[in-house]
């Protein structure tokens, strides 16, 4: 059996988003949802590449026991949603102090997997 996923890209206004590539703007991708139209009950997981998201939506995913993935500067969003405390997190090195000040244990590693219950 093959694992598959349907991916939706959501942005504040439902319009394209542009990534960051080292020192310059990266590629743009179209969004097919507005953040306001996204509900945790419609998804199995959420991936945060950085940027901003409504902390209430993020908390809804977390409280439902769904997968929450955060890379680069996205752990800031975990901090804002009050779900970082007591967790082991990795992030871009420049936000290490913020991660630690939020009560998280910072690691310079590729990825971390933890259950929703701390």
Count of individual beta strands: 8
Helix tally equals 3
Query: Which stretches are poorly predicted, pLDDT < 50 over at least 5 residues?
Result: none
Strand order of the largest sheet: 1-4
The biggest sheet amounts to: 2 strands, parallel
Q: What is the percent of helical residues?
A: 10-25%
Class derived from helix and strand content: alpha/beta
N-end to C-end Cα span: 32 Å
**Rg (C-alpha, Å):** 15 Å
What is the N-to-C succession of helices and strands?
EEEEEHEHEHE
Mean pLDDT: 86
> Which percent range describes the beta-strand content?
15-25%
Multimeric status of the protein: single chain
Explain how this protein is built.
The chain has helices spanning about 55-65, 75-80, 95-100, and strands spanning about 10, 15-20, 25-30, 35, 45-50, 65-70, 90, 105. It is α/β, with parallel strands linked by helices and about 120 residues long. The radius of gyration is 15 Å and the shape is globular. About 20% of the residues are buried. The termini are far apart. The strands form 4 sheets. Strands 1-4 form a two-stranded parallel sheet.
